[in-house]
Specification:
The chain has 205 residues and is mainly alpha-helical. Strands 1-2 form a two-stranded antiparallel sheet. Strand 1 and strand 2 form a beta hairpin. Helix 3 packs antiparallel against helix 7 and helix 5 crosses helix 6. It is elongated, with a radius of gyration of 27 Å. The model has no long low-confidence stretch (mean pLDDT 86).
Length: 205
């Protein structure tokens, strides 16, 4: 194990470079003095991470806002983070309608055992009650929840892109260092734009 760690930390090799670039995009390129390319790749990493942090902050603010809104307009319980509860508040006008749906489920599951209906509903219901004061408030809450979901989807996309970017950086660094050692000219171009990022490898023999 110690030999592997020493190899990764002390040697100049494509494997070490790929390992370092997997952790921090472009870091492995510093061992072959490609500092400018390293800085460009890190700058893109920081930009992507900044977008993610911004979305995370926005998501927390929206969640806090709609909890407060539901408390004021539906007497909902704002201290819980139980997604089952907020999904029920979103999908049912009040607790009674929600509870009746659980009773219907119980009747369908246990048609010949009425004693199970109430216990099934109690076991599967959320612990806190709510009742929207009007449909306008309920509809506004739905829009707030939808806005949160859009941010969550964007965050997942950013997570996937960051993982892909780290992997691409590791592969790029491995190929770059290997070909440089073989005295081949490998030019890497990072082409960021507003909507996409292109990583292009050009071999010149």
């Amino acid at each position: 194990m110690l030999n592997i760690v020493s190899f990764l930390l002390l040697t100049t090799s494509p494997i070490r470079g790929a390992f370092l670039s997997l952790i921090v995009p472009g870091l492995g390129l510093k061992q072959v003095r490609e500092d400018k390319l390293f800085l460009k790749m890190v700058a893109l990493e920081l930009s992507l991470f900044s977008f993610y942090v911004y979305d995370l902050k926005s998501k927390r603010e929206i969640r806090s806002d709609y909890k407060r809104f539901a408390y004021e307009n539906a007497s909902a319980f704002p201290q819980t983070d139980d997604e089952r509860y907020w999904s029920a508040v979103e999908n049912y006008y009040n607790y009674e309608i929600y509870y009746e749906r659980l009773l219907r489920e119980a009747r369908a599951l246990y048609p010949d055992d009425p004693l199970r209906w109430e216990s099934y509903a109690n076991e599967n219901s959320v612990p806190y009650r709510w009742a929207w004061k009007d449909t306008t408030s309920w509809d506004e809450f739905l829009h707030k929840r939808e806005k949160e979901r859009k941010i969550e989807a964007r965050m997942k996309a950013l997570q996937g892109f960051l993982i892909t970017y780290h992997l691409a950086s590791a592969i790029y660094t491995f190929v770059y260092i290997r070909n440089k050692k073989m005295k081949l000219q490998l030019k890497g171009e990072i082409l960021p734009s507003q909507e996409k990022f292109n990583l292009r490898l050009i071999y010149r023999f």
